[in-house]
Amino acid sequence: MLGILLGLTIIIVLAFWGWSIIWVAPIAAGVVALFGGLDLLTAYTGDYMSGFVGFAKTWFPIFMLGAIFGKLMEVTSMANAIAQTISKWLGAKRAILAVVVACSILTYGGVSLFVVVFAVYPLGVALFRQANISRQLLPGTIALGAFTYTMTAIPGTPQIQNLIPTHYFHTTPAAAPLMGAVSALIMAVLGYYWLVYRETALRNKGLVFIEPESTQTVRTEDEENLAKASSDQTKTVVNPIKNSRPNFWLSMLPLISVVVALNVVKLSIIIALLIGIILILVLSAAQYKSFIKAINEGANGSVLAIVNTSAAVGFGSVVKAVPGFAALSDFLLNIKGSPLISEAVSVTALAGATGSASGGMGIALESLGQKYYELAMAQGLNIEHFHRVASIASGGLDTLPHNGAVLTLLVITGMSHRQSYFDIAMVSLVIPTVSLITVIGLASLGIV
């Protein structure tokens, strides 16, 4: 038990310092193995690598195809076309809602949240400029649309955090639809009204839109129209390909095809993503010269993502192999109340420790997934509830300050933790945790 706690402490501290989990996880696994009385070399070559390779074998095609899909949506400007059209429909006066909706549509359609950040940020700046909203709210606004309910709660989302539980609980991506819908509604409504409240509070303090430090801003035609009121504040270089923006409905087809193929036709996520990729290539055939580079970049980017998560799962495999794991399992499984509480605590704590929703879930379910499955079967519990709780719980404490997506979001938006992390934490950590507690309570009462 001491070795397990030390191993987790190493992951938490070093990940918070920004050290890569790719080599931190093996170090932490080595500590667990030594304290657990395992042979160090055997633990690495056997237990650790079995967990690492097993996860990569199962999920690498999905990571790779998902990254390629997202990159193609980005380079063909389809993601940008969707975001701009949503903003035009809702108008600059509803800038926060427009950014949230644009992010939500893209992530629910299968676009990586990292791609969404890059695609939506320029539009978000233009909308916030026109509405005169402080830019320190922009990271929290993007986080609400991309890091929360569309990632974990809405049934059928093709994001990896909703797909991993299917492997352990033999469920579908649309598992526990009512529970997921209630959780998503709580996150969306409370998150949106929090941001609106904060907008008013900042405005009352005299904190409104201030131009980014960059001296040049590249804008599309729609962004130019939104920013006319403040055009004298920044030097503008108009996008030379502004008139080549794809049609909104054609841009939506790949996203819709992925969701429909996965949830209605019940095809494999691999086939669903392939259909989406083929549609992008066909609908954007005139841009064929950019395809190879985009596919290469997407495939290369997926390698780092899968290795990071596989490293975390490998650590979980070593934890599962030491004698102290039996005591840890008994502690977690005997937490008073519904076993969903035990699962939620395990997943969200490890997601926070690793700074990764998929990594924390991978460790928890690799170690305890089978036990929860057997418990559900033995007690006649709804296994779909275990799927949905694991998914929602992974999107709670994962967005602590050392989370990679949070760091990327702050860098892209030009904000600091001091300026914007409070709002990020409220919409992507505190409110999702509230929604998790709520749906577990409702499930225990048989309401969802």
Automatic annotation (TrEMBL):
Residues in coiled coil: none
Stretch forming the signal peptide: none
Keywords associated with the record: Membrane, Transmembrane, Transmembrane helix
Xref: InterPro entries: Glcn_transporter
Keyword Phosphoprotein recorded: no
GO cellular component: a single term: plasma membrane
Domain of life, source organism: Bacteria
GO terms assigned for molecular function: gluconate transmembrane transporter activity
Transmembrane residue ranges: 5-38, 58-83, 95-121, 133-154, 175-195, 255-283, 424-447
Keyword Transcription regulation: no
PANTHER family, per the entry: BLL7963 PROTEIN, GNT FAMILY GLUCONATE TRANSPORTER
Name this protein carries in UniProt: GntP family permease
Lineage, uppermost ranks: Bacteria, Pseudomonadati, Pseudomonadota, Gammaproteobacteria, Pasteurellales
